[in-house]
Amino acid sequence: MKKLEQLLDEGQPLIMGVCNLTPDSFSDGGENFSTDSSSLSKGCRKVQQLFSDGSDIVDIGGEASGPGSVAVEDSEELARIISVVEETAPTGLISVDTYKSEVARKCLESGASIVNDISALRFDSKMVDVVSEHSCFIVLMFSKEKDKHPQVSASPGEYENIVLEVSNFLEERVNFA
User: Fold this and answer.
1) How far apart are CA 98 and CA 104, in angstroms?
2) Sign of torsion, CA 76 81 83 85?
3) pTM for this one?
4) Which of 2, 23, 43, 151 qualifies as a FRET site for 63, CA 20 to 30 Å off?
5) Dihedral angle at the C-alpha atoms of 160, 148, 26, 37, nearest 10 degrees?
């Protein structure tokens, strides 16, 4: 298995597959979520299928963030994903989709290589320390939200110049990181 640094050095685009382990996932309608013991094997099969289909990285999430979704406690998010991260990290590059520092910490300690933070390090002040301590890669996502409610989405009319706004936001977040 190649490390992310090696893949990035090759200069080719990378494909990130998504495995949402939530009942209210916008991308798969909750098809990979289960509250019984089959949840681990279902999630692991999905991750392995994504790798088999050509994904270079698989992003595993345990809390939906789309409009109308419900926030969950750290413990619930971890219960949904940690076993899948532990089981699949030895077989490929795993990203954890979370804005919570404790979830990120435990997943990085369990083999994840990347944190995909929808808040771009804004919702949890300890996230920057976790990312720094683990010297991991981070995906910084754009959102207008300024608090811990990523489930509320901005309407298109709220942007004066969306390209400039996103560009400025991401430049500031990269400088912060």
Assistant:
1) 7
2) negative
3) 0.86
4) 2
5) 170
Nearest to 134 by CA among 162, 84, 168, 96: 96
Measured over the CA atoms of residue 141, residue 142, residue 147 and residue 148, the dihedral's sign is negative
132 backbone dihedrals φ, ψ, rounded to 5° = -65, -45
d(CA 12, CA 29) in angstroms, rounded, equals 31
Q: What residues form DSSP beta bridges with 95?
A: 59, 114
- Adjacent-strand bridge partners of 18: 59
| Contact present, 94 and 80 (Cβ < 8 Å) | no
> Residue for token digits 């989405």?
153
- Taking the alpha carbons at both ends of the chain, their separation in whole angstroms is 27
Which mean pLDDT values do the consecutive 10-residue runs of the chain (177 residues) have? 84 93 59 53 89 96 82 94 95 96 98 96 96 96 68 63 94 95
- Total count of residues recorded for the chain: 177
The token pair that represents 112 in the structure block: 């994840």
Instruction: Report the amino acid identity of residue 28.
Output: D
DSSP labels for 11-22? T----EEEEE-S
